[in-house]
Design a protein that fits this description.
The complex is a heterodimer. Chain A is α+β, with helices and mostly antiparallel strands. Chain A is built from seven helices and five strands; from the N terminus they run H-H-E-E-H-E-E-E-H-H-H-H. By secondary structure, chain B is of the alpha+beta class. Chain B: Pfam families: CO_deh_flav_C (PF03450), FAD_binding_5 (PF00941).
């Protein structure tokens, strides 16, 4: 198949090169596993997976309604980044361990990488893009700037959303409690002291 | 992740109907099942979203106990005033686990169902009898510093990861479930299964059964209770060892005690033997040490985790000491 044929094929099936490679990977993994699983005898073969039926979901993100047609496997994080081009929320570990993907769902901080987009119907999602009012920064954003609460900035959107959630929850009062309550957000640059100062400033404001 | 069909159900009967087919899994908070699906360890064909079910209440019962809906978030349970007052060990246990974000997502029922973090279970490159029954246990001959020393078998030494469950084991909570054939109440000790020859069978739930709520029985002296967790980091890490204890001290004598251990067992590990040892003794270090020795009597170490036996004893002694000093 030459290049033009390949392009036509992609247009026809709507499959990108990246998705195609992913599918091939899954398929060959499935082939290798089947004999093992059959021997174990307690599971059905992997190649009978349910077909991926796209679903339509209506999300409320930063106050505006977005209707998307998605594969059921798409996480809230991937819907935000890949479908809505809101790339503020970051993908760090993609397993709920680093906190870079933290957003607010109905005002509470969650890991958007461990939440399916289809489950968000009826949830008010606030991302880092939704915190400022026009040109006016959210107090937590301003405090992070003032106290230099970051170095490379990759964890910062998650840190800020998490910090906003922390202040709302109202369970952290001492330095130790704030550190404990921010433990779900990892900063490889080690800006923790400055993040602590930023949060304390907002809390006392 | 394998493709799956997603359905949202409005009530418990609909959830139960949807559960029996297509290797369905329930999803509530999703913090564990979705993580495992991303790694192709869990491969449901159908995901049943139960978040619309009315199982969000924390109710104080007339008998002094508390009934907790299966969908109550871990953070809501931990910060509930009645839980903090009547069962501080449960509040402390929950707050010692995971991160604030995860606790805002994870539910009571989901926490009961969470699966081991044994690295060999998580890595599909290795043999694991939990993941692929009959394939072997790579942990027994592998790096097993985090693995269990109590309740193990020749087929599995995976640790039960939950903190919440350790406190619930100590309290003797009762798990209420509903299935196609009606409702059942399962005593906590019978809910999780020992690995034995079938490590892939982890709990006492049938495929069509849904946890609806957990009942915490009245236990007045649980107001004097504590959860202590020892781990490699100061926060956001699974237990090396932990202890959930409650003491009923009257006139300088322990009238009754509750003792459960985490990080050391293949299931949340209540030690009734240790409770019996404590009963009738004065609340002092010698008594606590005796209880700790009893609790770990049957411990069986592997290459890298013998330290857990001594660490668990010290954890228990310290938890009992702290609890004994609560006025």
């Amino acid at each position: 198949m030459d290049n033009s044929q390949e392009d036509q094929e992609a247009q026809k099936t709507g499959t990108t090169r990246r998705q195609f490679l992913g599918q091939v990977g899954l398929a060959s993994a499935g082939l290798q596993l089947v004999p093992l699983l059959s021997k174990a005898g307690s599971m059905l073969p992997d190649n009978e997976a349910a077909p991926a039926e796209p679903v339509t979901v209506s999300l409320m993100v930063n106050g505006s309604r977005k209707t998307l047609t998605l594969d059921t496997r798409v996480t809230l994080l991937d819907a935000l980044r890949e479908k809505l081009q809101m790339t503020g929320s970051k993908k760090g570990c993609d397993h709920g361990q680093c906190g870079a993907c933290t957003v607010l769902a109905d005002g509470r901080r969650i890991n958007s990488c461990l939440h399916l987009a289809v489950m968000c119907e009826g949830t008010e999602v606030t991302t880092i893009e939704g915190l400022a009012k026009g040109e006016e920064l959210h107090p937590m954003q301003a405090a992070f700037l003032k106290h230099d609460g970051f170095q490379c900035g990759y964890c910062t959107p998650g840190q800020i959303c998490s910090a906003v959630g922390l202040v709302r929850e109202g369970h952290a009062h001492t330095d130790e409690e704030i550190r404990e309550q921010m433990s779900g957000n990892i900063c490889r640059c080690g800006a923790y002291n400055n993040i602590l100062d930023a949060i304390k400033e907002v809390q006392t404001a | 992740m394998q493709p799956f069909k997603y359905i949202k159900v409005p009530d418990t009967p609909a959830a139960i109907r949807a559960a029996g087919i297509n290797q369905a899994k329930f999803i509530a908070g999703g913090t564990n099942v979705l993580d495992l699906m991303k790694l192709d360890i869990e491969k449901p064909r159908q995901l049943v979203d139960i978040n619309q079910l009315s199982l969000y209440k924390i109710e104080e019962l007339q008998n002094g106990g508390i009934r907790v809906g299966a969908l109550v978030k871990n953070s809501d349970l931990a910060y509930n005033p009645a839980i903090k007052k009547n069962y501080p060990l449960l509040s402390e246990a929950i707050l010692s686990g995971a991160s604030p974000q995860l606790r805002n997502m994870a539910t009571t029922g989901g926490n009961l169902m969470q699966r081991t973090r044994c690295p060999y279970f998580y890595s599909t490159d290795f043999a694991c009898n939990k993941r692929v029954p009959g394939s072997g246990c790579a942990a027994i001959s592998g790096y097993n510093r985090m693995n269990a020393v109590l309740g193990t078998s020749d087929h599995c030494i995976a640790t039960h990861p939950s903190d919440m469950c350790v406190a619930m084991a100590a309290l003797g909570a009762v798990i209420h479930v509903q299935g196609a054939k009606g409702t059942r109440a399962i005593p906590f000790a019978d809910f999780h299964l020992l690995p034995g020859q079938t490590p892939h069978l982890e709990h006492n739930l049938k495929a069509d059964e849904l946890i609806t709520h957990v009942e915490l029985p009245p236990l007045a002296y649980a107001a004097r209770s504590h959860y202590l967790k020892v781990r490699d980091r100061a926060s956001y890490e699974f237990a090396l060892t932990s202890a959930a204890v409650a003491l009923d001290i009257q006139n300088g004598i322990i009238k009754a005690a509750r003792v459960a251990l985490g990080g050391v067992g293949t299931k949340p590990w209540r030690s009734i033997a240790a409770e019996q040892v404590l009963t009738g003794l004065p609340p002092n270090t010698a008594s606590y040490q005796k209880a700790a020795d009893t609790a770990m009597l049957d411990a069986k170490p592997n290459k890298d985790n013998a330290y857990k036996i001594e660490l668990a004893k010290r954890t228990l002694v310290r938890a009992l000491t702290t609890t004994g000093e609560i006025s």
